Amino acid sequence: MLKTILIVEDSPVMQRLLAKLLEKQDYTVLTADSGEIGIEHAQEYLPDLILLDIILPEIDGYKVCRQLKGDHRTKNIPIIFISTLDSPRDKVEGFEAGGIDYITKPFQPSEVLLRVRTHLRIQHLQDELEEKNQQLIVEKLKTERLLGHVLPESVVQELLATGGYAPQLFTDTTVCFADIVDFTSASSELSPGVIIRELNEIFTAFDKITHAGNCERMKTIGDAYLFVSGVPTPDPDHAVNVARAALKMVEFLKERNRRVGISWEIRVGISSGPLVGGVVGTEKYLYDIFGDTVNIAARVEKSAQPLQINVSSASYELLKDSFLLSNGKEVEMKGKGQQMIYTLLGHL
């Protein structure tokens, strides 16, 4: 691709000399015989390089350079001063104004061509580097967005900052399992496309409910939806958050069943207590939770009827002042013996 060079020089003889020299090397040449015209040409044509005299009518080369470097459109154009002024002070002022090189008159043509070629090459490499940096920024943002879809925000930030995430013990949390009733048998009569569409619509609605309610979806396990509050960000209202979200999920399905041909029901189990949260995997990250609280929530869910929300005794103690709950009943819980289970009926 042909490069364009702007010559800002008030001497007609010097201007023609430089123009012929550069045109012989297949450069496209623009000329200006004053600083003001030079600025106008630079802003309009955006040349690849500027050869700039210092002693010019009305506005000198230093001021031209500073003005161009202060304009976002022209600030990256390399400027080579070419002048009869040859004192160290003159050269320093040229570099301070933003010039990248300084050639004194009279000059050797070969020197001018070599410096022009060198700085065009440097600028080309800088442009390539900037383009690659922008590509890296775009890819980094994509990576952060993708991580944000599968990991909590605070976990993503720690992973990006440190390259890892230390497992944490969370003492005050509430866990909820929501499992679609008879999904396996019902889905055997539906096409794969319909099954995925139905799950996607239901779980997308659940995602909106949990996000709005200060809860965090952990994962879906087939037709089961697991979410938590108090992890990875502690929240004193963790039990209330989960209870409200569970009630909204049941209401969503009831409303959806009235207007959609395919009906679904869920059983819901809630339990509160300590658990451990951490990132599992090194290539495919998964933030997961572990502990007795998770296991109890899963077993409490098994005791629920369709469209019923059952809670453990630990959750009952945290919810009894804000929600309407049934009288407790004892159930045999695997590994736990007899445990009290309560049904969440609504808000007080």
UniProtKB/TrEMBL annotation:
Database matches in SMART domains: CYCc, REC
Keywords associated with the record: Coiled coil, Lyase, Membrane, Nucleotide-binding, Phosphoprotein, Transmembrane, Transmembrane helix
Any one GO biological process: cyclic nucleotide biosynthetic process
The protein's name in its UniProt record: CheY-like receiver and GGDEF domain-containing response regulator
Phosphoprotein found in the keyword field: yes
Ranges where the Guanylate cyclase domain occurs: 174-301
Response regulatory domain residues: 4-120
Family: Belongs to the adenylyl cyclase class-4/guanylyl cyclase family.
Matching PANTHER family: GUANYLATE CYCLASE (PTHR11920:SF335), GUANYLYL CYCLASE (PTHR11920)
Domain of life: Bacteria
Coiled coil: 115-146
Any one cellular-component term (Gene Ontology): membrane
Species this protein is from: Desulfocapsa sulfexigens (strain DSM 10523 / SB164P1)
Localization per Swiss-Prot or TrEMBL: Membrane
Broad class of the protein's primary localization: membrane
One function term, GO molecular function aspect: adenylate cyclase activity
Transmembrane feature ranges: none
Modified sites of kind 4-aspartylphosphate: 53
